[in-house]
């Protein structure tokens, strides 16, 4: 049950405690039984407290993705993202949510060297944010690390297919699995991650039939992005699906055009300021009548 309150005199954040129980790792894992998921998992990215508040009632899982490097910081890729960034934004998202399970991405360079390095980084993330799980990229090469973390009480979401942290090795963000060898590797990676103990797996940017096959063959829920409607759930970058950027990846459906609406609102504000029609009496302070 959420019990926190914030002083509304000093903060715009005014979460109202809502009776209920936060989604748990076992509950999410149990969504898939006998290879089928009757209720697909709804997952979106969140990087700030306020966005978490707005998304939380409608999602099962909020991902504090390292995509914040591009979305929040304007970086060219996720590679420069740091643990400090992930911890700061992860803590904000946890504070802004009460229902969704919150998972935080492990940034590039924080887990690849060894299982011990991964544990040190993941334990810091969980301590400083209060999140319930971490996500890391990589297939069979990361199986030992996933097992190491899972056996020590750190729930892990795997990530196979297009792995953005490896963009320099992949040579771009194109769909994966177009060759037989690459398709076989994706399937093998997903199975290795599942066998290692990941409680869910993100499958990104792969041919639809491969995503469908992965979903059918592995035990944990498979969450697709640029994958297949037959996956056990879906995830998108929230700012993409809300239309906050001019460029929209092919696999994204734009559910709104918030960029245009924000521009229109700011244009109206700027005109009123320049025309001295804002502020009005409703937005200014005057002496109270005697």
Task: Note down, in words, how this protein is organized.
This protein has 290 residues and is an alpha/beta fold. The protein has one domain (25-242, 249-280): TIM Barrel (Alpha-Beta Barrel). The protein has helices spanning 25-29, 49-55, 68-71, 83-95, 115-129, 143-150, 167-170, 180-196, 208-217, 238-241, 258-274, and strands at 32-33, 36-37, 41-45, 61-64, 101-105, 133-135, 156-161, 200-204, 222-225, 233-236. The strands form two sheets. It has an eight-stranded parallel barrel, surrounded by five helices. Strands 1-2 form a two-stranded antiparallel sheet. Helix 2 (49-55) packs across helix 4 (83-95), helix 4 runs parallel beside helix 5 and helix 8 (180-196) runs parallel beside helix 9 (208-217). Residues 1-5 have low confidence and may be disordered.
Alpha carbon gyration radius:
21 Å
What percent of residues adopt helix (DSSP H or I)? 25-40%
Q: What is the total tally of β strands? A: 10
| Architecture per CATH nomenclature, i.e. the level-2 architecture | Alpha-Beta Barrel
Descriptors:
alpha/beta; 290 residues; TIM Barrel; disordered N terminus; single chain; 10 strands; eight-stranded parallel beta barrel; 11 helices; two-stranded antiparallel ribbon
């Amino acid at each position: 049950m959420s019990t926190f309150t914030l002083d509304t005199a000093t903060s715009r954040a005014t979460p109202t405690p809502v009776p209920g129980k936060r989604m748990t790792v076992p509950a999410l894992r149990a969504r898939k039984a006998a290879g089928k998921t009757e209720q697909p998992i709804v997952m979106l990215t969140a990087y700030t407290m306020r966005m978490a508040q707005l998304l939380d009632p409608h999602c099962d899982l909020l991902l504090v993705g390292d995509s914040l490097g591009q979305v929040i910081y304007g970086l060219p890729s996720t590679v420069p993202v740091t643990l400090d960034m992930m911890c700061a934004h992860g803590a904000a998202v946890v504070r802004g949510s009460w229902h969704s399970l919150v998972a935080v991405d492990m940034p590039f360079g924080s887990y690849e060297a060894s299982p011990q390095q991964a544990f040190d980084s993941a334990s810091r993330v969980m301590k400083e944010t209060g999140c319930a799980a971490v996500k890391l990229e990589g297939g069979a090469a990361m199986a030992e690390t996933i097992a190491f973390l899972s056996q020590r009480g750190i729930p892990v979401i795997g990530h196979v297919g297009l792995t953005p942290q490896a963009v320099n090795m992949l040579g771009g963000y194109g769909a994966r699995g177009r060759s037989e060898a690459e398709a076989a590797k994706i399937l093998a990676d997903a199975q290795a991650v599942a066998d290692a103990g990941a409680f869910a797996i993100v499958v990104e940017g792969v041919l639809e039939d491969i995503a469908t096959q992965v979903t059918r063959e592995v035990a944990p829920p498979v969450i697709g992005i640029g994958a297949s409607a037959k996956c056990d759930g879906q995830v998108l970058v929230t700012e993409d699906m809300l239309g906050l950027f001019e460029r929209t990846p092919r696999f994204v459906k734009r559910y709104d055009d918030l960029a245009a609406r924000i521009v229109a609102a700011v244009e109206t504000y700027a005109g009123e300021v320049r025309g001295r029609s804002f502020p009005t009496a409703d937005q200014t302070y005057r002496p109270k009548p005697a």
